[in-house]
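Lecture notes, unit on binding sites. The following record was shown on slide 14. It pairs a sequence with zinc ion.
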Amino acid sequence: MFRQTKAALQKLRYVSFNGCRNTWRLQSTSAVERASQYQTGQKIHGFTVREVVAVPDLFLTAVKLTHDKTGAQYLHAARDDANNLFSVQLRTTPMDSTGVPHILEHTVLCGSEKYPCRDPFFKMLNRSLSTFMNAFTASDYTMYPFSTQNSKDFQNLLSVYLDAVFFPCLREQDFWQEGWRLENENPTDPNSPLVFKGVVFNEMKGAFSDNERVYAQHLQNKLYPDHTYSVVSGGEPLDIPDLTWKQLKQFHATHYHPSNARFFTYGNLPLEQHLKQIEEEALSKFERIDPNTEVPSQPHWSSPREDHVTCSPDALAPDPARQNTLCMSYLLGDITDTFEGFTLSLLSSLMISGPNAPFYKALIEPKIGTDFSSVVGYDGSTKEASFSIGLQGMAEEDTERVKQIISQTINDIIESGFEEERIEALLHKIEIQMKHQSTNFGLSLASYIASSWNHDGDPVELLQINDSVTKFKQALKDNPCFLQDKVKHYFKENTHRLTLSMSPDDTYLEKQAKAEEEKLQKKIQALSEGDKKDIYEKGLELLSAQSKSQDASCLPALKVSDIEPTIPITPVQISTAGGVPVQFCEQPTNGLVYFRAMCSLNTLPEDLRLYVPLFCSVITKVGCGALDYRQQAQQMELRTGGMSVSTQVIPDSTQLDMYEQGVLLSSSCLERNLPHMFQLWSDTFNNPHLDEVERLRVLVMMSAQELANGISYSGHMYALTRASRHLTPAGDLMETFGGMKQVKFMKRVAEMSDLSQVIRILTRIKKHLLNPDNMRCAVNATPQKMSDTAAQLESFMKDVAQNRKERKPVRSNIIERPLDPLQDSGLSRKLISELNFQPCQMKTFFPLPFPVNFVSECIRTVPFSHQDYASLCILARMMTAKFLHGEIREKGGAYGGGARMGGGLFSFYSYRDPNSMQTLSAFRRGVDWAKSGQFTQQDIDEAKLSVFSAVDSPVSPSDKGMGRFLSGLTDEMKQSHRERLFAVTHKSLVEVAESYLGIGQRTCGVAILGPENKAIKKDPSWIVK
Ligand SMILES: [Zn+2]
């Protein structure tokens, strides 16, 4: 339903593990009904209603308004969803690459008139039950969204957001901290060398360590060379030091004005209250201006262009000789033409997605490259959309061949069009996406409408997706060549086309470092002795401001007593189908059925475990039964909402040295397609085409490339996984399935010339895993559909009975846990127990071609059910907010950092961090800080709020009961954990810090991913990979 924006141009303000698992609560239809009462022309709190439109397909009523005095635009989507969302977006169209909109996004969140304390945004994370809080800088707008289920909280957050956006302090010190500054490397030593520092400066250096990001940025800059899209809105690291504080304030005055703003609210809270607060606290204080931020259309080129850029070599790329990227990009029409945008985004899917798409057949299957280029398909994030097609991981000599294939494929499409069934499959996909109750619906809507609305497109029209579907079907009926004509117009005859290639340069990083050094020296040479003294003093001032304990009492806050004391119960029923245990969970799924099966790994020989992730990624993509892989993909699109398999390592809730291992099958479908979905699973069990070697090779190549690309983005996860590897038996398996070990293994498989051995292994794995004897299932569906689903599940079990085989577990120490602890049904989960496991300490370093580090340290503590677990959870949160954030982000200049508790481990991490050893020492000082007990009851209460906002983040109907199904966590166990969280005290926090985290008490692992590191090289206690 939502247009894909492949270019990774949106940046998150911070990294969080809490995520945003939000909800959909079916209650009365009061919010929708209430909203439909509004009349066009009606005046409310300084606004005039322009339009009221019911959108029944999305269960919402849209109310469009404008603010009379300032012209601010407003859209409210009333929907009976308690997870209310607010967002305000400003059109920010920079004309240079100093990163001014991005640095502004950071600095407005550093304190405002009404809330002058430092960093109110981060502080609100601990004073609220928000389900989401963040800020984004896109190429041409900046957005500030939050969501919460609590109405008092909504008002609190709205007040802080409005004040931050419209009345920020923008102190010079904030600009230094968040943007850039020259400072002594050691701020307390005036003789240490001057260096560049600043959060955004480091963040962007980190962001451009990702080659995919580098490519996407160049492509956009060069395809739209005449206005705001030709610059880097996030900031080009070497241009950032050209920005002045004054320019920043000027940019705010012209861009962060109501006349340049679009407000969006979503959910079941009354619109009037929002309007009143926004008018009183912000808009009434402004007069209308002409912001003059429109983006002009990009003048069309009369002939196509070519260009070339370089990047750093990728040490983990599957084939070092093939690291080139080439793609062709086409300028399309204006995104405010809703139907044209809809059509082109569908067209793009037809051309590219899945093994039946012509570009997939022409470019991926001949294995010229490892995958599509990082930017591929329709991109509607700029005023005029673009379409890109190309490859990454290709050899330089294939350049001409790829260009030829692209133009030939376009000709072929114009010639033969698309099969009707593929179009039908795509429309089916839209139907499913509209029906699926997503976990963060408000936020999805906000980002879905943002780009078009930003250029004065009609957001209500965008929401009426079914109208576009109807119009699309009609257009195809009227003109069978409708799509082919579009291809001819937009691709074949389009002279605004850019062919951009990228190749690795061994001296890339060196050149970058040199350019930075030159920039630095130029700045330093311009300084007088007085300037240098000034810099030193300002550095000390900043340090002392950062070290001061901060008074946040001006900020609104919820209280611990605002938290619900009990959790709602999710009833499930446990029964069997064909002898296999099944958990049934009745939910308002809106006509969809969700099916999962957990298959145990206990009988699988251990030397095959490294291959399990590969098995998961290919088993639903190689063809099955009578279907080849193309037909299978088609059927999956036509009949299901997707079928996938993933690895599972589930630590036991009572014992650190026990865990369950398996793979999880997941799928969904419309109720009418249930038999088709089970048929596809039966065919997968009975006859998967694992011996399709050519298909397998394509899939292997793509997986290896995807893993290698993911490291610069998820480096902290890889560091954490490695650090915990030797601390618990589950940790070791997690490293095998999803750590650096797996990345390197897949690289090796991708390099193998002969895959027959791999095929034999995958076939063996299939016999162990897809065995109903080792399986349990879960179904989420509406009450009306439940008995029918049970009957069909029963017949599915008959269909796959031939795969039943009693096999011996490879370990002798298997422990059974009842599936239903309250009622002895005799059904159980089988866990591995390694009570003799000896945790060991290890420090591992992975040198990688990044200019920043990912640092982590994990400490073995206690399992979920242990009485100290809750204190450790609160401690991790409190230490993050009250100590580590200041040390690692504010002082250290890393993008993010903190502590978390999970899987029996207390873990520290940093993200895109210029430091390594210094960060490890910050972790240690965090423990000392905790042991010293220098924190207040207020600090503890804030940490509790923050932990509960994660614990209570709502769960969608499709995922209800899954915690119980996978981990055996019952509502009763969750409730006891909840009570232990409430009961955490100052004393218990100091005690857990002393007994688990202190030197001597702990067993810990450390891992760092990052650039060459002299300190580590010299220290023999490190293992360098
Ligand atoms: Zn940022």
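Take-home: Residues 11, 13, 102, 106, 200, 203 surround zinc ion (CB under 6 Å).
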